[in-house]
Amino acid sequence: MRASDRAYEALREDIVEWRLLPGQVLGEVEQSERFGISRTPIREALSRLTADGLAEAHRGRGVVVSQVSLEDVRALFELREALDCRAARLAARRRDPVTFQDLATELEAVLHQLHGPGTDRTGYYELVERMDRAIDEATANPYLTAAQRSLRLHLARVRKLSRTNPDRLARAAAEHAQIARAIAEGSEELAEAATRVHLANSLQAVLTTPVREWVQPAPPLEAAG
Amino acid sequence: MRASDRAYEALREDIVEWRLLPGQVLGEVEQSERFGISRTPIREALSRLTADGLAEAHRGRGVVVSQVSLEDVRALFELREALDCRAARLAARRRDPVTFQDLATELEAVLHQLHGPGTDRTGYYELVERMDRAIDEATANPYLTAAQRSLRLHLARVRKLSRTNPDRLARAAAEHAQIARAIAEGSEELAEAATRVHLANSLQAVLTTPVREWVQPAPPLEAAG
DNA sequence: GACAAGGTCTCTGTATACATTCGTGCGAAA
DNA sequence: TTTCGCACGAATGTATACAGAGACCTTGTC
Questions:
Q1: Can you give the pTM of this predicted structure?
Q2: Could you say which residues from 57 to 76 on chain A have a Cβ atom under 8 Å away from some Cβ of chain B?
Q3: How confident is the model at residue B1 (pLDDT cuts 50, 70, 90)?
Q4: What is the pLDDT of residues B97-111, one digit of tens each?
Q5: I need a labelling partner for B109 at 20 to 30 A (CA). Which of A41, A69, A107, B186 fits?
Q6: Can you tell me the distance from the alpha carbon of B156 to that of A117, in angstroms, rounded to the nearest whole number?
Q7: Strand runs labelled E in chain B
């Protein structure tokens, strides 16, 4: 694996997991010392982060972790509605029925576990990831998949901002199961409708969940660490 | 302006304009000699092209201009329908009425010129570009705009593949005027419907127009120039 | 005391040298 | 004759040195 790949993935995780806060300056020398590699692969990693939109190149000040506001959440969900609804339709049209039937079954199994006290979040999250990949594969549209990848990066960052309510988690699992069933049945209309319902609920959950950060807009530009 | 920016834009134009054909290997040394700069900024330019999807990094063989097939055209228009329809709705919701009223008026003026023998393509193309920018601004959604930017890059490449029929050009102008009017009126439903009509006609025009290249899939990987 | 201008300093942008890895071609053996 | 293996070469991946540009601080003047 290349050094630039390692640096890119590490930095990306740091940003998505909020270990690197918005406004943080990512100096080339500083990061190269941190990873023990030279500036060249760091530069490539920072370029990729900038292309992803997770960081922005400030003229003369270097690369800075991008801000995330409530307005961004709205914008992200607007794009997500466009992409996910279309993806759901296309998946319903071209899906392998067994794959999505299995996903629906597994989601309902996890759903029952989520009602207990020991909330097995990891299992659910992994299942959602598998479903995303299954939809990507079913749509058979590399351009749509690429757009989704970029979007999911930002969504993951926003999601990590607030602890999801356990009740909401269970309802989300039920909604995912509904989407999977609709896709398995090949019903485009229902798949899109179920997706739209899921997104509306998800957005509301994010907006009503008490969040920590984005009230204080994080250090504007001066070295935040 | 940075050397890497110049190289990126020049290479991007070369790919979109089909001066660099799919399968063409973009060697770092070769390109650095061509532009008279070192490998470092070339590497950055190639990275950005790869991120755009206009080129692909082949392990051990370097960066290669990406292929475009009929299947890609279908996929591109699927994504375009998702993005453009959503963008049209959002633009209708948040537009500045005067901007789109003016665009509609200008489009109809150009439309009449297009009926004559001297087809003023450039004027029309520039107007469409202005309308794209106006929609981007009206949607007020940077994530949607970023997705659009990437998509339009690929669409521009596909569009350059075939000479657009003059009749089709006039009809496309009329369709654009219709979209602009709907947005100016603030009718989300009509804006989306008009967009959908335009896209369906555009796709059919592309698919029925005789094309040169993609029958012969271009040199697969061996040096194509 | 505040604002502007100049200087310094640190950081990015670029060039180049070196190492590592992958492809390719030739030769030998089955 | 075909296939496997080794060696050579070229291109990428990385490191480092240098130059230029921008930011910040200091000082002087109003």
A1: 0.91
A2: 72, 75-76
A3: confident
A4: 999 999 999 999 998
A5: B186
A6: 54
A7: 25-26, 55-58, 62-65
